[in-house]
Structures are given as structure tokens and as C-alpha cells.
Amino acid sequence: MPIPTRTRVKFCGLTREEDVDAAVAAGADALGFVLWPGSGRAIDPERLAELSARIPAFVTRVGLFVDPSPALVDRCVAHLDLLQFHGDESPATCAAAGRAWIKALRMRDGLDLHAAAETYRGARALLLDAYRPGVPGGTGETFDWSRIPASLVKPVILAGGLTPDNVGEAIAAVRPFAVDVSGGIEAAPGVKETARMAAFLRAVRWADDQRSDP
User: Both ends of the chain: CA-CA distance in Å?
Assistant: First the structure.
């Protein structure tokens, strides 16, 4: 698994203009938008277009899908830089839009990450999240980080229950390429807290500084 010199940060589940602006100002590397209607943070393609237009260059716009129809992806793809798939999508489905993509994997018992990395070898990274039956993500729960092999060939985006209080420990344990947070920076689903966003980023930078010290 490639080890970064700086941990990238994605804030996910954005629904409001003020939160998009605050996330950009805080220094997030990527902003995620949930395009699965089953989520309390879901937005539609029209709202995606509005929010995406506020995001400046060099901040990655990520769309989160769960077994989407091709028509939904087609309506959204012009407003996104990266697609994130959380369902049972095949590699061919993930690649069909012709856009860079990542595959989310829920860390259920028996999951072979090396095999998954080979299956989804076209993915730019694997996003690893906690497993809860019937829930494709956003559980707010952590998982056993020691299950992630250091030899994994794909970059890891670590998700699942991260907060300003535990993200430093997570980075020290996993050394992921990036971390992904939604509920850990919220006052309510889809409503971010500027202070918690800033605190999360401070914790990430502190962890990176600790790791780089001789």
C-alpha cells in the first residue's frame, strides 16, 4: 500500500452551501455528495450541480452511489471528478461512465482485501468502511483497523466512525492514503459544524507531523 507523506481528507455528505464553503476554506482535499436516495444526506442531481459549482479548482468533487442506474450517473457525472461506489457494482459498472472511480468495501468477516484489490484493479483506491448488515455505509462505527494489510497494493481511504478525537490514532495505526468523515463532523445528518471540520483537519495534520518526526 503506498504510504503518503500527507494524509488527504475527504468530507462527505455535504448538503448546504455554507458547509461547502467552510470545508473548502478549512482545507479539505475532497468533498463528497451522496446520490443514494436511501441516505439522510442524499441530494438530487440538480442540487449537486448547484453545490458543485461552488467548488474551486484542486478540490475533488466526489459522488457517492449505491447500485445506481446508468441514467442517474449520466445526470451527475458532469459535476463530479471522482465516482465512489458503495453497492454491489461490478468493475465494469464502476468504469462505465469513463470517470475515475473508487470502490467502497464494508469490512465484513472473511473479506479478502487482496482479492478485492485484484477484482477492482481499475479503482484509484479502496475505501474501507465498517460493516453493518443492510447498510451500505455511513454507520458511524469503526472497525478493527489491524485487519488492513500493510502490503495492500491499492491506496486505502479509511472511513467508519472517524472523529476529531480518534482520527489521529487511526492514522498512526493504518497510515492510510486518505481519511473520509461524515457524521464525525456533523450537528445532524447533512449539517456540518465548522468548528468540528477545523478540529478534524487539525488532528490529521498533528498525526502527520508525529509520523514525520525522526
Answer: 22
